[in-house]
Amino acid sequence: MVNDDKNVLEIDHILRTTRSVRRRIDFERTIEPEVIEACIDLAVQAPTGIRAENWRFVVVTDTEKKRAIAELYRQGGEAFVKARGVELKATQREHADRLHE
Q1: What distance in Å separates the CA atoms of residue 9 and residue 3, rounded to the nearest whole number?
Q2: What interhelical angle do 63-84 and 90-98 show, nearest 10?
Q3: Within 13 Å, how many C-alpha atoms sit on residue 98's CB side?
Q4: Cβ contacts of 92 within 8 Å, gap of 6 or more
């Protein structure tokens, strides 16, 4: 992967300077595989609390599969909220609502 590519540099800048990356996502735009790979390359540079870099990434592009995953995520969130007796934060709710995108 070429690190001086303009898109990679823009992604790198956004990921390094934006506290809530989700708020900057254009959900209507198709993401090229190279851009996804660049994001993963940046993600694995993040520190882990137990120094166990055992990441696993799954890139899903199929619309129906994304909807099914989002539904499972919502169900898990609802179970968590119920078990803990807490409320989801607005950003967590927004994430669950848009995960299929």
Answers
A1: 7
A2: 150
A3: 13
A4: 77
pLDDT in tens, the chain (101 residues): 445 678 778 877 776 666 565 566 677 888 899 989 988 988 888 777 777 778 889 999 899 999 999 999 999 989 999 999 998 888 888 888 888 98
As a whole number of angstroms, the distance between CA 63 and CA 38 comes to 22
Q: What global pTM score does this model have? A: 0.61
* Whether the Cβ atoms of residue 85 and residue 12 lie closer than 8 Å to each other: no
Range list of H helices, the chain: 6-17, 33-43, 63-84, 90-98
Of 30, 12, 18, nearest to 91 by C-alpha is 18
Question: How many other β-carbons are positioned within 10 Å of the β-carbon of residue 66?
Answer: 14
Rounded CA separation 66/71 (Å): 9
Radius of gyration of the chain (CA): 16
